[in-house]
Amino acid sequence: MEYWQWLVLGSALIIFEMIAVTFLLIWFGFSALIVGILVYIEPNLPWEAQAVMFPLLALCCVFAWKIWGSKRFTSDKIPLLNQRAHRFIGRKFILHQPIVENYGRVSIRDTSWAAQADEDYPAGTEIEVYGVDGATLLIRKVE
Predict the structure, then answer these.
(1) Residues of each domain in the chain carrying CATH 2.40.50.140
(2) 93 - beta bridge partners?
(3) What is the pLDDT of residue 72?
(4) Structure confidence at residue 70 (pLDDT)
C-alpha cells in the first residue's frame, strides 16, 4: 500500500470512531496513521512488514492506553460525573414556587428540579439542598 492509502485509512477509522464511539477504532486509526508515516519515510517497505506492523501497533496503542491513559482519565477523578443533582448538596437557593404538602419544584439556572421538604415553604424562602433521593432534591429552610 502507498503511504497516502494508510493515511486515508487511518483518518477514516478515526472518523468512524467519532460516529460509533466504540473506543476501539481509534487505536487502529492511529496505527494506520503511524504505518502511513513510516511508509512515507521508507517507501520501499514491503507490504508484509506493513501488514505485520499495523495490528502490532494497534495492540501497542491499546495496551499503552490501558496502562497509562485509563489511570489518568477515570471518572474517579470527577466523582459527580453524571450525578448532576449531587452537585447541589450544600448549596443554597431561593424558592420561586412554594412547597406544598412537602413537595414542589426548585428552579436552578435553567432547570426545574423536583424537591421534597419536611414542611411546606412559601415562595421566596431561602433553602439549602441537604441530600438527593433519585432525581429529587431534599431541601430544608436555611435558618
Answers:
(1) 84-141
(2) 127
(3) 66
(4) 66
DSSP for the chain, written as a single string: --HHHHHHHHHHHHHHHHHH--SSHHHHHHHHHHHHHHHHH-TT--HHHHHHHHHHHHHHHHHHIIIIIHHHS-GGGSTTTT-GGGGGTT-EEE-SS-BBTTEEEEEETTEEEEEEESS-B-TT-EEEEEEEETTEEEEEE--
- Contact indicator for 33, 7 with CB cutoff of 8 Å: yes
AA identity, residue 110: D
Grid cell in block for residue 143: 435558618
- Residue that is written with C-alpha cell 428540579 in the block: 113
Amino acid at 34: I
- The pLDDT tens digits for 89-125 are 999 999 989 999 999 999 888 889 999 999 999 999 9
pTM (predicted TM-score): 0.53
The grid coordinates listed for 73 are: 482519565
Residue among 46, 58, 60, 69 nearest 13 (CA): 58
**CATH 1.10.10.10 fits domain 84-141:** no
